[in-house]
Design brief:
By secondary structure, the protein is α/β, with parallel strands linked by helices. It is 32% helix and 24% strand. It contains six helices and nine strands; from the N terminus they run αββββαββαβαβαβα. A five-stranded mixed barrel has the order 5-8-7-6-9. β7, α4 and β8 form a beta-alpha-beta unit. It is globular, with a radius of gyration of 18 Å.
Length: 274
């Protein structure tokens, strides 16, 4: 794991040489949600492939760029595209960028994703504020020898999503008249979508939405004591009693249609962050 820390530090040093001012807020943009970049006054763009040891996104809807700039007066750094376990990456690779961002000096992490709606009372095209999660991924980013310089061997996960950040998201959603649900996200390995029986099972164990990302990054952030919050765009309805076939194209279409709400919400939250 000493080698892993060396890789992280090498990437951090590379970025410090490129970035004039340390960003205080990091944003991870999920499937079909890359247009939030339009809200950033961009100072610098760096391709993932140019950053030492950085993975490269293999998913069509993930651009694979690090965007540095400002939203209002706040310095931000945005990941335009993230990494998934199903792409074949190890969990260490999936969370590598989060660890780099923390050591770069980022103080808060805001995450977005697209997810399937398990709660039958909600509709696709709306937003979910994640207040807890269930991890059904088949690996964990903290498995193996602990990197003591990053955090403790057994990090507490009693409140993985920062209470103050979630309160601010609720407040801004209300002011913007945005319908913001709140509930539990379950992360599964993917890449296939779920069967009727699996959707029923996930609902029975307490999940409101299902996706294939976010939880590894949140675990890594909590390990490093990096406050985080996450918003899901609910892109398809996963009621096993009325299930219809869907596709990535349809999911991205709903994500793109809902994105203006997400962008407005993120912008207003970021402007108020200390």
């Amino acid at each position: 794991m000493g080698n892993e820390l060396t890789k992280i530090q090498t990437a951090v040093n590379f970025l410090k040489e490129k970035i004039a001012h340390t960003p205080s807020i990091a944003i991870i943009l999920g499937t079909g949600l890359g247009k939030l970049i339009d809200e950033i006054k961009i100072a610098l763009t760096i391709d993932y492939k140019d950053i030492p040891h950085f993975p490269v996104s293999t998913v069509e809807s993930h651009a694979g760029k690090l965007i540095i700039g400002t939203i209002g007066e706040k310095r931000v750094i945005a990941m335009q595209g993230r990494f998934h376990f199903y792409e074949g990456y190890s969990m260490q690779e999936v969370v590598f960028p989060v660890r780099v961002l923390k050591l770069l000096g980022v103080q808060k992490l805001l995450i977005s994703n697209a997810s399937g709606c398990l709660n039958p009372e909600w509709k696709k095209g709306t937003l979910l504020l994640i207040n807890d999660h269930i991890n059904l991924q088949t690996d964990n980013p903290l498995r193996g020898k602990n990197i003591d310089e990053l955090g403790p061997r057994f990090p507490d996960m009693s409140c993985p999503y920062n209470t103050d950040l979630n309160t601010l998201f609720r407040k801004k959603a209300q002011l913007l008249n945005i319908d913001l649900h709140e509930g539990v996200y379950v992360s599964v390995p993917g890449p296939n979508l779920e069967t009727r029986a699996e959707y029923k099972f996930l609902r029975l164990i307490g999940a409101d939405a299902v996706g294939m990302s976010t939880v590894p990054e949140v675990i890594a952030a909590n390990h490093m004591n990096l406050p985080c919050a996450a918003i899901s765009v609910l892109t398809d309805e996963c009621n096993p009693l009325s299930l219809t076939a869907t596709s990535l194209e349809e999911i991205i279409k709903v994500a793109n249609e809902t994105e203006p709400q997400l962008a407005r919400l993120f912008v207003e939250v970021i402007k108020e962050l200390a």
